Predict the structure.
Amino acid sequence: MNRKRPLPSRPLPKCTSIAQTAPWASADVDLETPATSVMTDLTQIKAATIAPEIPLRQVEAYMSLLGVHMLFVVDEAPYIAGLITSTDLHGGRPQQAQSRTGSRYDDLLVRDVMTSRDEIDAIDLLELQGARVTNVVATLKERGRNHLLVIDSVPGASTRVRGVISRSQVERQLGESIDVVDMACCFASMVRMLA
């Protein structure tokens, strides 16, 4: 090949898609395996994000395309405004937002049902590094969550989300299910019963 010759090119066909990364290869674990083995490291895997003004109807298709159940809601990159999960889409949050705003479902946006940043707690990476998978399972159960965020502080910079632990990923790696009770759902049910 002539070293100075330009490479040939051609127009993109109408139905051209974008290649997706291969699923994260995860090793089997047991309860005594180091906890970092079940964390998706966001320095290795790009975080899935969405803007707060995206209509809910588009969110589920986007999650499906990416193969995720949680998206970081980012309003001013790289800062997190909140999270939205598949549970948020199918639980009581859309109905609560409709009642609160008087909107139809088709008019709801991510910001209307997301979990805002001030409602999110996280685990410090240093704590996780000394823990085992059994500690992760206990935390998922205690918090009633499907996802845990892992944070670290970079010297001279702000705190950042370093990783995500997904209940479904832990279940796949463990080879067994983890019974987690959604605390927000239970609280909402109790409020409805008392009303």
